[in-house]
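Chapter summary example.
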Amino acid sequence: GSSRFGICGSEGDAVITNSGGTMIAEETIATYVEELSSKAPTPGGGSGSSVAGLLGISLMEMAVRLTEGKKKYLEYSNDYKAVIDLWENQKEKLLFYAEEDASAFGTLMEVVRNEENLDETLQQHTVDQAADYAGRVPLQAGQAIVATLKGAQSISDRINPWVVSDLIGGV
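The structure predicted for these 171 residues follows.
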């Protein structure tokens, strides 16, 4: 396929959609993976790594939620809350980066397509600026993912052994 995926939302809820406005939740994971592995320019690396990061964070968060509140682990409640707060923040960033990756790449392509309409100095500056931003989005997604891994490491020895594999799977 050649649909373009992005994220839209109302009242603060982000929903991953394709360019036709269809929610990916109504599509299949296989469809997104097919698009990601196709020749289509989007979704690209920033979107794919952001979605992978979101899935990983969700697994890690599940492990914590299945552990917290258990008698044996009550003394770590504040640690769990801090990590979940961190992860929720990183999930918001990754949702943004999944959308922004396609937007930044689209801007770069638009600049390149229209560069002949600009004088040479402005042309190079504009292309460089657009390319820099398009490359920065996947980097920012990676930084958000690294922050979540530090959270996982901080509580890895305080997770119920029945769900520690979920924490590890999220990493």
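To summarize the output: The two ends are 30 Å apart (CA to CA).
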